[in-house]
Write the structure tokens for this entry.
Amino acid sequence: MTAPLLDLRGVTALYGASQALFGVDLRVDAGGVTALMGRNGMGKTTTIRTICGLLPNRAGEIFLDGHEVSGLAPHRIARMGVGLVPEGRRCFAPLTVRENLIAAARPGPWDMTRVTGLFPRLGERMGQRAGTLSGGEQQMLAIGRALMTNPRLLILDEATEGLAPTVRAEIWAAIAALRRDAGLGILLVDKSLKELGGVADRGVILDKGRTVWAGSMSTLDAALAARWLGV
Amino acid sequence: MGRERIVNAALAVLLLGVPLWAHWAGEPFTITLATRAAILALAGVGLNLALGTGGLVSLGHAVFFGLGGYAMGILAHHAQTFTPLPLWDLPGTKSMPVIWLVAITGGALMAALIGALSLRSSGVYFIMLTLAFGQMCFYFAVSSPTYGGEDGLSIWVRNGFPGLNTLDPLQFFLLAYAVLMAVIWAMARIKASPFGLALAAARQSPARLDAVGARPFRLRLVAFVISGAVTALAGALFADLNRFVSPSMLSWQTSGELIVIVVLGGVARLYGPVAGAILLVTLEHYLGGISEYWQIALGAALLAVVLFARGGLIGALAGRPVAHD
């Protein structure tokens, strides 16, 4: 059995004196998609911030391709192949679409042509400032920017939140294409269980900062969803 | 062509045209004023990379300006007195290219040292640290009798540049103008490069940039070093223009004056410092001849720009920056 691309074992994190994660276990396989689920405030974004080094891991271990990354600076973790699409998109608003992509670019198969192939709308907006794009276009830019870093693991935090249904469909189609064609490991946070079930092969549910369920998405039944996700 | 490019071209033509006209009209002092504007603009262009693109409000850039000035003064002093430099018994020089090389290297090294320590802080602490370094260098120059102390250091004849008669005001202006245009061209390339774009992104959100794999501290340090080197080059030219260097070039007032030039012209605008320097030198000359309180007018101009024209003169003339494909 090959080592997972991302492996979290008993990860613990605090905001000041307040503990937010109490031992999170999670796995993403190379080329696989893992859905990270849970109700609001259960620690999904905190887990992502801890993986990316934006919040220190106080106990437990985080392995990326077999290498422990806890304690490394965020830019070093990113350079090891972790691409983050943060919640709320957070593009560099004063820069144009092209400039946002260039600022993040690192050598590899993902370049401007491939990103605009995935999101043709970005190709039409290259000279437009990111701050003036629609929410959906900003989300596409945030994903494109993360891909320009040529990651092995792509983390998407609430990538479809607050978007119109047609734009959400475009984003989900792009994620499915990434899974099918790019061979990336993907860690996905989203509230839409139906769409998650369509693209993810594994799932993890957090409750009050702990992993309470992990397994194949095909085994996530209505009773589990009702108990832990309230749906 | 965007409006800003037209304004930039007009400024470049104005700065070149006035001394050419002055030469034709037999007004050598106007050429000297234009040279002063070009050199101050060069210092402002250096500062603008750190302040405008990088968002680093440095109140210590006079260190680099003065260091460039003292590089010129010390090397020329030893050349004209036929005495060796205190270090390694090297001779002085009257060659501008050599002096520029020393000034640029010295400015870059000093900026690397100050930046490595100051850039670990941000906001008001960064401003205070750069100010503190500036004041340390100022008092070091004041208390150093070897090179004139508080009285400064004069050189008898302007340094030379191969193929030019630098004693001719127009030729010296053209040299300063060529350096300014070359540096502006280089700055345009830097701003459009991945490094420049990442630097601009770091200004908006260092944490966000960190998360895509770029280290904001390193980007800012490189920008600070380039900025210091350019400002030192301007300092060497400025001292050569006046044939004099003194601790006032290292004072915090000089740092403030460089910031005023950038803010007046337009922060982060490529030709902002050119517009700011032309305005400053014009006010200084014409209003300074009327009243010793001319800086009240400068203060009013600065207030007007900050309150009503956030993009400085360039912003007022050309509008908001245009996004480029």
